[in-house]
């Protein structure tokens, strides 16, 4: 097949994913289509392999590892609070995609979509998935009540948000931010993400798909890649996602202005006209 003007072999399935992610880089090295190489340059990290890739990746990982990121939880908290105070409070409607792009720290609409999917789950099951209140599997309200006014979230607070992260992973399973990767061959994450032998009822949003991490076979959930080239920013993304969701659900109630909105890929998931929502603040802007 031809893809982006380049002859391409397409592989899919767990065995193919494992082969692609574990084989020696000299055997199946990264190779972007020529059109992408011209845009990003011959020396971008996606083109590197072997010792060069290890050196550059090692530099990135040195400041993205958990023991380093622990020091920045408070700063991330402050930036996300500021974003909501500046771009959300005092407004009746928000165009989520545009508002987030203005601060450039969140790139995809999925983080708000997580909660819309959760609240809309009643279309598929007898009970809606609660996001606050007694019996709620999410810990956002419980954590917020344990904090003094203005007190920042901590690493330990984020560690308690296990169910929230499962919901985030479920959204990434259904709508992976990267639809494929190039290594002289091309693979697509959706082929295993939507396999009902791996994730029962794959078209339904259900965080229980990730209740037991061990039940998801290796090289099947690929939102962050896998093997030696797994995304070095994985932990950073997890922290940013959890903090954003925490303040989103504790400070606002909302509903979609256009319930039938859809998205396309460009190549990332993109909402043509943004995600417009009606919002109502739960608490004053500067209260935790």
From TrEMBL:
InterPro entries found in the cross-reference section: Cyt_P450, Cyt_P450_CS, Cyt_P450_sf
Q: Name one Pfam family in it.
A: p450
One annotated GO molecular function is: oxidoreductase activity, acting on paired donors, with incorporation or reduction of molecular oxygen
Q: Does the keyword Metal-binding apply?
A: yes
For this UniProt entry, what is the primary localization, expressed as one broad class? membrane
Q: What biological-process terms (Gene Ontology) are attached?
A: sterol metabolic process
Q: Which family does it belong to?
A: Belongs to the cytochrome P450 family.
Q: What is this protein called?
A: Cytochrome P450
Where does this protein come from, organism-wise? Dovyalis caffra
């Amino acid at each position: 097949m031809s893809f982006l003007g380049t002859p391409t072999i397409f592989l899919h399935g767990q065995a193919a994913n494992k082969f692609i992610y574990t084989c020696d880089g000299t055997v199946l090295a990264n190779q972007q289509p020529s059109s992408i190489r011209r845009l990003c340059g011959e020396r971008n990290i996606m083109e590197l392999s072997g010792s060069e890739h290890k050196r550059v990746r090692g530099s990135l990982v040195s400041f993205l590892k958990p023991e380093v990121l622990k020091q920045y939880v408070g700063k991330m908290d402050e930036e996300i609070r500021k974003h909501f105070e500046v771009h959300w409070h005092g407004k009746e409607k928000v165009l989520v995609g545009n508002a987030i792009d203005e601060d450039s720290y969140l790139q995809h609409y999925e983080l708000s979509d997580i909660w819309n999917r959760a609240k809309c789950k009643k279309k598929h099951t007898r009970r809606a998935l609660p996001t606050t209140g007694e019996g709620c599997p999410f810990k956002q309200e419980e954590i917020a009540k344990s904090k003094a006014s203005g007190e920042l979230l901590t690493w330990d607070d984020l560690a308690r948000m296990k169910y929230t992260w499962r919901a985030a992973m479920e959204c990434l399973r259904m709508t992976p931010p990267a639809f494929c990767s190039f290594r002289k061959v091309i693979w697509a994450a959706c082929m295993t993400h939507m396999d009902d032998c791996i994730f029962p009822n794959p078209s339904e949003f259900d965080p229980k798909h990730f209740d037991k991490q061990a039940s998801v076979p290796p090289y099947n959930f690929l939102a962050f890649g896998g093997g030696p080239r797994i995304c070095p920013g994985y932990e950073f993304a997890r922290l940013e996602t959890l903090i954003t969701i925490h303040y989103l659900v504790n400070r606002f109630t909302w509903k979609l202005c256009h319930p039938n909105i859809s998205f396309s890929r460009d190549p990332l998931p993109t909402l043509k006209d943004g995600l417009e929502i009606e919002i109502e603040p739960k608490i004053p802007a500067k209260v935790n």
